[in-house]
Each structure stands twice: as structure tokens, then as C-alpha cells.
What we know:
The chain has a four-stranded parallel sheet. The chain has a four-stranded parallel sheet with strand order 6-5-7-8, sandwiched between helices. The relative contact order is 0.17. The longest helix is centred in the middle third of the chain and has 15 residues, at about 90-105. It has twelve helices and eight strands. The chain is of the alpha/beta class. It has helices spanning about 20-30, 50-60, 60-70, 80-85, 90-105, 115-125, 140-150, 170, 180, 205-215, 220-235, 245-250; strands spanning about 5-15, 35-45, 75-80, 110-115, 130-135, 155-160, 195, 220.
Amino acid sequence: MTNRNFKIGQIVPSSNTTMETEIPAILRAREDILPERFTFHSSRMRMKKVTKSELELMDADSLRCALELSDAHVDVIGYACLVAIMSMGNGYHVTSQNNLYEQTVKNEYPTSVITSAGALVEGLHTLKAKNIAIITPYMKPLTKLVVDYLTDQGFNVVDSISLEIPDNLEVAAQNPENLKEIYKKLDTDKADVVVLSACVQMPSLPSVDFIEKELGKPVTTASICTTYKMLKELGLETKSTIGGELLSGRH
Length: 251
């Protein structure tokens, strides 16, 4: 692509305040060393409590959001709620992406669509992960849905931690520095990759590099994988890993 100015579209829960900070943070770091420039545009779906029933209602509103972002002629659309997709059944990220893409086609502006759920799956495959350990802010039943979804995608979840925070704003209010201690409760011995935040609302970026160096194995998050997948869809593949190196802009 010859264009060096890209419009990033995000479909986000109404109570999500993290993806509009973490994705720009990663891409601003990229701007420090590469010529591309990015602007950020969002459309919101109502959701306050992270429960299966609210997630289902929210997901039904995603088609409207795709249409609105298509009106803005964004260059890529990211559905930024991992657990909403994974709670809808195994493999649903493909169905969601297809349905959202069809909205952009009907609006006469076909646009690449990704989901944070699908991006995490692809990111883990890119890292050649087989055994993974994950941290989520969800209640245990929702974490189980995430574990089952990832298992269906070919991964073995060797351990998981559920912080059991149902309020989505409270999830966003978590101090990412706390993950430097929380991760130590994970059994990571058999894990190829650690997913520090299997949730696009739980902040994690400031701890990724530190934990990756301390563990000596790849550490990634849903937001990092989402950004990585967006770059690929824009034809801007990065040579970095899908962890701390992408965050810091090293290539």
C-alpha cells in the first residue's frame, strides 16, 4: 500500500476505556521509528457488567457499529471484546468477522475486520505456542469459556488465573504493575507462552517487557495480538515478536 496514513476503527463495549489507550500506545511507539501515521475511531456497544447475558446483548449490536465505522472509511475494523466472542461458542470469531465484513460490503466500502479473539488465536499460533498459561479478570465460569475456546483452537491451557471482577470499569481500573506479582501464581513451567491479559479491558502493557525478561519466554496480551493483526491486515507486517518487542517498537 502506498498510503502511509491509516484510520484504525474499533468496536468497543461502552464501558471499555483500555483499547483506546493501549492500541494507540503501541502504534505511537511504532511511529517513533517508522513513517506510518495512525488515527483512531470507535463505535460503542452497551455493556457494563461482564456477564454472559450482557455480552450476548452487546454482541448483537456489533453490526451497527461496523456500519458506523464503515461510514468513516476506516482502513481496518477491530472488534475489541475477546470474551464476548468466546462466550458465543467455539470458533465464533470467524462468524463474527464474516458478519461484520458483510456490513461494510453492503455499505459499499469493504473493510478488513478482525476480532481480538481471533487475533489472540492467530498470535499464539504465530508464536508456535502449544501450552499456554493465561490471566483473566473474569469470573471463573467466563474464564472456563475462554479456556474451552482456546482448547478448541488447538492450545493446551496448563493454568489460568481468574481475578473475578464482574464490573467492567473496575477491570479497567486495575494497576497493570500488579501483574508483576500476580503472574507468579501461575504455573508457567510447562507453558510456551504466557497470556498476561486475556482481556482487552485489563491494562497490562507496562508489565509485558519486565515479565517476559524475568520468565525468559514469550509474554503477550489480547491487545498486543489485536494490534499485530491490524498491522498485518494493513500490509504492515512487523518482524518483531508479539510481545514486548512490538510494544517497545523494536524491529
